[in-house]
Write a structure and sequence with these properties.
Elements (H helix, E strand, L loop, with lengths): L3 H9 L3 H10 L1 H14 L11 H15 L11 H29 L18 H9 L19 H10 L2 H10 L10 H7 L4 H18 L8
Helix pairs in contact: 1-2, 3-4, 3-5, 4-5, 7-10, 8-10, 9-10
Amino acid sequence: MQTNEQLCRHAQKGNTAARDLLLMQNQGFIRKTAVQIYQSNNLEESDLYIEVDDLMQEGSLGLLKAIPLYDSSKGVKFLTYAAPAIRNSMTDLIRDTSRQFEHQLTDKDARIQFSRVYLDDILDGDERLRRIEAIADPYAKMPEQIILKKEELQELYAALDALTTREQSYLLYRYGFTDDIEHTLIGTAIHFHLSESRARQTEEIALDNLWLEFPQSDFPL
């Protein structure tokens, strides 16, 4: 049996039989990757109607795209090189489908970023600080439509950093700190793998705690 690298060389020269064999030879890896992504994103319980076979099809396209770009002289195995392209094709499908799904729900140009996060993930202190520093536009819409002046931004950062990782992650995404898009409650629930009721409860608690961390004199009555 020819190796992936040998088949890839033939495929790069226009041998379609070698290309098809290369694809077939790596179906096991593509399926394993598809199952992992399907399970990690809880697609079985979502309303996106994406099946494992859909992810496999996209992964196959990702592998085919990697063929002409592969350079065996780099000393990297073909599958090692192609794996990111396979995964990216699958995650692109989920991201694009998620955007369409939220658009249908809101009839607005709201968008879900694919970078999915489980709220139970624990971040260390440095990562939490980097997340706050990544806020794109601190003037953006705040909970309860609070408008903060420039000199009050430091207090905002301090208040956010005083929240739990779960609360901080939720608010940064929900109110568009990281991407300038204020996401819907349902869209945020999908992003964090929460039920709508759990997302609403998380939001209420996070907002209450954020208010407590701010000097009350900073808020208009």
